[in-house]
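Handoff note, outgoing to incoming analyst
You'll be picking up this chain. Sequence as last confirmed:
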Amino acid sequence: MLETDIRELNERIQRESQFIDLLQMEMNKVIIGQKHMIERLLIGLLANGHILLEGVPGLAKTLAITSLASAVDAKFSRIQFTPDLLPADLLGTLIYSQKKEEFVIKKGPLFANFILADEINRSPAKVQSALLEAMQERQITIGDTSFKLDEPFLVLATQNPIEQEGTYPLPEAQVDRFMLKVVINYPKKEEEKIILRQNITGKQAKINQVLTTKEIIKAREIVREVYLDEKIENYITDIVFSSRYPKDYKLGQFENMIAYGASPRASINLALAAKAYAFIKRRGYVIPEDVRAIAHDVMRHRIGLTYEAEAENVTSEDIINEILNTVEVP
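Most recent structure output, in case you need it:
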């Protein structure tokens, strides 16, 4: 790509990405700190990828998602996952109308732009797979009729890592459909004081709508135009391949610790998320730092660990850290 083309693209992206500041400003009215989580929600929004948020209760996971939905002029559905939920509770069902003397379709809460799947690991596999089919195919079938879902369609699922009783862990193949798995930590002491003050006054800041669905779709098209050099492509494939064949990348110590490496979805999502990250940073081209910034979120749920790794307390985070330290940066 010519230097002049990149310069033009850069200028265009600086103009077109103005709304990012507005969106972050609105979300920061109610979310204190958690910059990492807000950035990752925006990456999902811009790169057309679903997000899995994991963290202990009370870390504003649900609040962040509802705030994002409030700042966008879009249809929002919140589904609280429970063990007695049925696929029809999500998708909708056929109801017999006595007036029309025929079956009519009653659409479920999945017919929206933003879906908050709260505590997704609380419901059985049948319900999880109904949601995951909609995520992958972007369509829902009720009876004999298939419905295309409106764009943008973004699933933001939360799961609580501390309770195992009464939960149904998501199978690896299903977790792979989430572009990012974001792990959220406790706020800093100063941030917690602000949260405390905000909540004891009882005054909730009002979030204004600053974005439309049309603007999101337009921004997504521009994100795909962000320039990704062949050197960066090679860097992405090296990162993914080193999780599959660690010995070839001087990471032989992990050979017996990785049960399976990252799937091709990891390569696709690393590239797309890096482009979205560059867009958020007002750049028209991807640099290695963009890939490194989002590598943990894209790969942590795509590396399977053996019993040996668990016995030695080696986590997927440790493996990704070592991969990023070892694989040559272009």
